[in-house]
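Appendix B.2, paired examples.
Example (i):
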Amino acid sequence: MFYEIEYDASLIPGVGKFVRKPKPQKIEEPEKDSIREHFGRMRDIARAHRSTYDFSRFFERRIQNDNAIIFYKQALFMKDFMDDYEGNTHFSQYFPYYQMMGYEQLRTYFTWRTRVRQGNIADISLSYAFLYLYELLANIGVADPQDGLDKLMLFWKRFREYNKSIDKYVLRWLKDYHIYYELPRTFKEFVDENNLAEHYPKLSGSDDSFELFCSISKYNIGKSTFFTDENKGMISDCFAFVMDRIRQDFEAAGMDFDDALFRPTRKLVAWKPFKDALFYTPVKPPDKRIILCENEIYICKNGEWKFSTIITTEKGRQFIAYVMKQMEATLRKIMKYRFKLTANTDMIHDDTIRILTKAGLFIEKIVPAGVMEYYRELTKIVITVDHSSLARIREEALKTQESLIVEEQLKEKTSELKPIQFTQQDRNIFADTANESVEEPAPVYDVWGKLKDILTENELRALAVVLQGGDMKAFADECGEMLEVLADGINEKAMDCLGDNLMDDDFVLYDDYKEQVKELIK
């Protein structure tokens, strides 16, 4: 209830009187607007921040930082909000965010965003589009950084059909996105997959890019006869695999691989991710170093980002040259390439060798082992069993069993076997062979120890027979085994460990592995 009071005129200028009207009137309570109330709670976040949000001073860094914090907190509050508003109110503002928007503008934006998330990307005022981009950069409304990148790319490709002015910002932010967030693919791979190379002409690759290391290596693998169109894909993948193993070994030894290879120039410049965007996240980024290409390095330490150009140390160039050449030499040997190649550790600087040795890192073993592991994975044969055929296989196996030697007879024959005794003449053969001049004796790696562990006693004895030039068929008969089964068992286990067979189809030991087999059967 209230009284209406009138300010009446008076004869004296500036003086009036109040007249109370006798009829009371009742104020009707306004109809509740849940959306307006929700917007009000969102605006309370800015009031609690106690910042002086001056829209006219958007260019000042302090104002931008405050606005970015407010935007992030409000965006989290509104991340699941959906609307269905029929109006379409224009909005134009530098560094837009919710606090500067009116009721109709907020409803216009969130209705448009609801439809964008449903796949309907329509034209709208450019400031609304940047507001949505800010949300994606901060990973608001996305499952993870990869999901955010996918949504960013989808929106950019669709919206640029209406307004290409977002290109110069999005193209820069895409690179920043790969620097700031952990993603499964490198920026180079992302650029190649999306045909964006023309926008990043100076990009030569990510930190383990084959092209990047080729540009700094003192060994030019591109001029090698082994580097053919057929092999270069495998060589590139093998190098990345080996580099990953080297990094793991360096980390296990408490060493930083990048420090040994790259060093920034003395002048480090402060760097801010997503320039010209309102970007803030309360999560402190981990310390890391991103070598984006040969001339760009980004370093994050204690949450602060720095940028610098990089130079490659001479020792680093020598080290990569050895790794690349040793990798190629091992690949040539595994693939039985007609021309051999030798990589000597003399290519590495003495200081580097000393540091590695002190840390227990023997690069002359790490690289070949990595190459063998890669090749074994590359050539691994995956067998898929059709379970529907198992019943038929069992039935056929029972029929076959009737034609085989009964178990008792097999045991009697096996019990009569005597272990092979090596004569002094056999030992002399081994000694003479060991003293032969070999161009490049292959060291025994851990993979050979693994092979010895999984070979059966009969398989080891069979290798001894083959090495002596004996009759493997007779030996297989004495053991009660089929010759082909025995040989295939040896070769399959060798393939698992070494990535190669030990014997050819005539059950003759390959010359490349005779020395290792001698060590194996001792």
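Example (ii):
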Amino acid sequence: MSYLKFDKNLMINLEQSLPKEMLRTNQAGAYHCTSIVDCNTRKQHGLLVMPLSHKDYRPHVLLSSMDVTVIQHGAPFNLGLHRYKGGVYSPNGHKYIREFDCESVPRTTYRVGGVILTKEKIFISKENRILIRYTLVEAHSPTTLQFRPFLAFRDSNELCVENTALNAECPPVENGVSACLYEGYPTLYMQFSRKPEWVYDPHWYKDIEYVKDLERGVPYTEDLWVPGYFTIPIKKGESIIFSAGISEVAPRTLDKMYQAEIASRTCRTSFYNCLKNAAKQLYLVDGKQEYMLSGYPWGTVLARNTFMSLPGNTLAIGHQDDFDRIMATASEALLNFMATGQKSARIHGIDLPDIPLWAAWSIQQYAKMQSAADARRYAPLLRDILNYILDGKHPNLFVLDSGLISTDGTHVPASWMNSVWNGRPIVPRSGLLVEFNALFYNALMFAADLVESDPELTADRRRWTDHAAKMAPAFVQTFLNESGYLYDYVDGTYADPSVRPNMAIAIGLDYSPLDRRQRKGVLDVVTRELLTPKGLRSLSPRSYGYRPFYLGSPEEREYALHQGPARPWLMGFYAEAYLRVFGMSGVSYIDRMLIGFEDEMSQGCIGSLSQLYDGNPPFAGRGAISHATNIAEILRTLHTLKKFNK
């Protein structure tokens, strides 16, 4: 299989090529994202999009796009592509594309008459700089390239309109110019490896449309500022490198910089390599702190997503050191909250009731994927988490006499099913949540086993095992119903009968109050009603309120978010449960289930997995184009299968 190569027939067909997106990041929060034909289809698309620390770390689009024109014998051939008001595409540069290859770096090959030109884009690691290399592969007459930058200087979730407030000046720098349209923004330096001619020719390009935003029912039209254009003659066999960054660079170093980045890349030539690259793109290094982004293009640093995705996105690809560094940053924020009640300014949602539970689960995966001996370094953190919960110190996690834990989710969502409209949870899961209690029981048992040989923790260990023994029968009595599956939550006398995938989390954990027969019964219901080729549905089609398609207005999409669309990350728990019940005989089945995710490598955001997929055929990808927990849990499943196949 040729993983990420697309030929002329697909590229020139906008119905097929526009929905395919590509993403590159610098592991410092900046990214480049667009469609594979270089037509921006979202307001979040851009050549250089980067977070601004003085603006709450939100990403901002500085350089939206760059149109390149090939000039021969005075005739211009513009290779750019934009959608304008009324759905008009211009200047239709996609018709010159002969191939797009994204296995190493994104490379587009154009043919204009006798001219063959390639364009390759690469981000500089941990630096807010993108390089684009243009190579004239073939030409039979003198050729000139013209470059026209489209500038935005705006929040990635907002839109720009023509205004008189911008600073139109473009001061010269070595082999280029600089620009800073508005106060409070960094200066953008646009430079070439060879000296260009700069022509100051300022214009607003008005009514540019973003079709993905149009489909989402949100504002979708903006105006972009083009201050002028560069021209550079180029000969057959020559390359020109363009740099866009927030610091000036020595043009003579651009080729060396480009080659060094190429050498460090892992080619996306397999399912695993695609996911490995997608995982690494989510790392965020900020000084001495390292984080995990929840996804792109709307991703921020979320506590729940961090702990849920940390094992798969680090340990499953051999990045133990990154696990330790990200865990150090996240656990510091968690410990500070547990000690003082103070929330983290950078890691959002650290105060949510399931965060300590997912942190404990993450440490457990470290013990399984590395070793229990290595995991003992996290025993103090695990002790603090469990005793914090048992001592009733969390403001929204309550230990009942039965040993089970309760939470209040009536006004603010308490779990990952956190869709909200008009300030109220759409799925108001409150009281005894099935995955909360399963995670807590699992954490108690795991911690007790981990510190078994530590005499200093004997009293803690006894406390944990006694509590687990107390809550085990209460769990079965509370959640297991006569139909053989688990209630999603129990609030007072109300037991929610909706068939949801949270029960898959409960049976996919290493320690469970359920016996093997009970686990198999729950697994059968999950398989029959929730399993799709793209993960587990968030609600069974047989349950009230099923909405399989994440489409329509913002309100319609929010109401559908956890009412039917499938989530790939839940496959990690489903696979663990299936293999625990069926052993080696289940390996081939789980392996076949992963084929549905491998197919996604050439769909949506190529080489990655979307946030969610429709619950009914054709199971189209929706939401965020690259999502941390989905990537992580499919990687963890691959890691689990590898251990079984040894």
